[in-house]
Each structure stands twice: as C-alpha cells, then as structure tokens.
C-alpha cells in the first residue's frame, strides 16, 4: 500500500509515526509532503489578522530553532524535534510543498499512485481535487475527541479550558473542517501535571498507534463509519472559539 503523509514543516505530532513506519509496515511505502508554514501570496497583514500574536511568535521561534538545531546536529547527536529533521535519517521519500491544492501537487499524488492520503498536523485545508486524488481514502488525524475542538490548536485549547480528557480522532476528509465520518477514536485522561509539551508527546504516540490500527482495518476490510454529532460540536481558530 502506498501511503502519503501530509504534515507541517514544524510538525512534532507526526514524528513517532514516521520513525516507526518501516518497522510496523515493512511491505508498504511512505511518502511525505512537508508543507511550508505560510502559503505563498498571503500578505503580512492577512497573516496577522488570521493568527494570534502568540501563535506567530511560536512559529517564529520554531523557525529559528530548526535552523539552529540543524547546525548543531552536524556536530552533536540530538533528539529530533520536528518531522523535517527525521526524514533524511529514516530515508523517507519527501517533498517540500507550498500549496497542497496546487494542480501540480494533485497530479503528483496521482502519479505516485497513493492509496491512503493522511493529513496530520497539516495546517492547510484540502479541497476536493486533492481529497479525491487517493485511490482508497483521504483521512485526517485530529488531536481531540471530535466533534469537540474542531479546528486549529486543539491541544492548546483543551488545556486552556481545563478539560479532563482528550484524545485522537481519525476521520474521512470532506469539504467541512474536521467534520467527516469518524473511523477511529481513542481517549486519554489529562493528568493535572500535563502541559502542552507533555500532552503533545502523549498524543503523538497515540496518533501513531491509531494510524497503524486504521491501516490494518483498511487492509482487512473492517472500516466502520460513524457520523459526528453536530449538537456536540465546537470549533476553535487560532484566535478563539468560533462555535
């Protein structure tokens, strides 16, 4: 099976899946599309309007951190922090992508004969042409218990709102944001000492295990779709709660 992972350049959640792929799915092929943080053509004012200042500061620090770590790693062995740091080490075929909905990118997905397309910590919304480019299914891995906490930064928001539990959901992609039928979900308790870093690491491991479980379900023909309950839905952007 040909599997395409689409994730952000500074993704931390997808690292565990990439590291374990060849061991867990030795007969399958993984290709990774790394998305740049901001799409080409978006003005500076547009970016400021759409994002919290704290989010932009965080992205800027990630940018500096990645290049500093890249320089240091040439001298010392350090633990990878972002997915872009592990792809070379694990010899994973990968491409740097600016816009996942660009027709050339969609054509590349078809050219690579992708069976399962999986977005994880992605940062861009796929349109119909990109979603339909895979031969079996296009899925999204979301770090909350959908339909709660749809949208961006669910780990930040569940901690800010002092939730007692969260988890990982894998669902089919459709035109809505995080609205597709659920095929796999796993919940965990949020311990009192957890912060954004520790919760991210925990969910990264659960996310990897969840993807491997879903791939097995597709191979064995055991997929069951569960529609999301709109009455329980909530959506958060980078600036606050939307509904």
Q: What number is the mean pLDDT?
A: 87
Give the CA-based shape: globular
For this structure, the CATH topology is Rossmann fold
Major sheet, described briefly? 7 strands, mixed
What order do the SSEs take from the amino end to the carboxyl end, as H and E? EHEHHHEHEHEEHEEHE
Please state the CA-atom Rg, rounded to the nearest Å: 17 Å
Number of domains: 1
Euclidean distance between termini CA atoms:
38 Å
CATH architecture descriptor: 3-Layer(aba) Sandwich
Strand order of the largest sheet: 3-2-1-4-5-7-8
Going by CATH, what is the homologous superfamily?
Answer: Formyl transferase, N-terminal domain
Show unreliable segments.
none
Helix- and strand-based class? alpha/beta
CATH class: Alpha Beta
Per DSSP, the total helix count is 8
Number of strands: 9
Question: Mind explaining what this structure looks like?
Answer:
This protein has 243 residues and is of the alpha/beta class. It has one domain (2-236): Rossmann fold (3-Layer(aba) Sandwich). The protein is 36% helix and 21% strand. The protein contains 8 helices and 9 strands. The strands form 2 sheets. It has a 7-stranded mixed beta sheet. Strands 6-9 form a two-stranded parallel ribbon. Helix 1 (15-24) packs parallel to helix 8 (196-220). The chain is globular and about 45 Å long. The model has no long low-confidence stretch (mean pLDDT 87).
